[in-house]
Design a protein that fits this description.
By secondary structure, the protein is mainly α. It has a single domain (about 60-255), classed as Tetracycline Repressor, domain 2. The protein is built from 13 helices and 2 strands, in the order ααααααααααααββα. The protein has a two-stranded antiparallel ribbon. Helix 1 (about 5-30) crosses helix 4, helix 4 packs parallel to helix 7 (about 125-150) and helix 5 (about 90-105) runs antiparallel to helix 11. The radius of gyration is 20 Å and the shape is elongated. The termini are far apart.
Amino acid sequence: MSHVSVEGSRRLRQEAQRAVIIDAAALAISENGYHGMTMRGLARATGRSLASFYNYFSSKEDVLFSLQTDAFETLTNSLVAALEGIDDPVERLYTFFLNHVRYFVEHRSVMRVLVHEASALPAGRRKRVRLLKEGYFQIGRDIVASVLAAGCNSPGADGAASLDPAEVERVAYSVFGMLNWSYSWYDPQVHATPQDVARTIHAVAVCGLVAHCPHRSAKGNLELYLGAIAPPLVSKPGRRVAPINKRPSPADRNS
């Protein structure tokens, strides 16, 4: 094996271990609070000696910063990949919802930390996290705006030119509110799969955005274009997030 191959394999193993540590640290922080954890406590919670833990993170601030940046980078990268080739605004909205719900169902402790410890970092690092967050929000906002503009492609839709930016902003934040708090109530024994959660939020959003939404009475067609999910895709070395399958072909839709 070449030196490059050895180095590459070693880096991948380190990234995989780092991802495992971050997930375990997220659980500990979500249960005890960021200020209630010490480096020794984080090391113990992740099953490592303190010396081994320091090989990956030099401080608990580094842990929190990495947790937040990894989350938004993973969300953004997996969403961009999932949206590739999907043009219909309503389909793009569902793809966005499913990508978001799947991630936070699989990383619920991460979501708790993002919500409750957002202000724990110092100003400089908060700004860097905020820029990642704003980039992700912008993708969602643009999808919401495209649904508003298209009006489900119904006659008389006003189009993008007449959209009130303040209204788009209000709707986008409302949509993110539905998505972000699903982690706090979702129970797979009660609420079925992440796809079902995404489907419900999608129906609420679309039928709320569009006055005469055809999807209220077209559940069968809705199921066809919502699609399914596939095995995970790699968003960052050592970390995997399930992608969304591409939309069904026209033949599938019409069958």
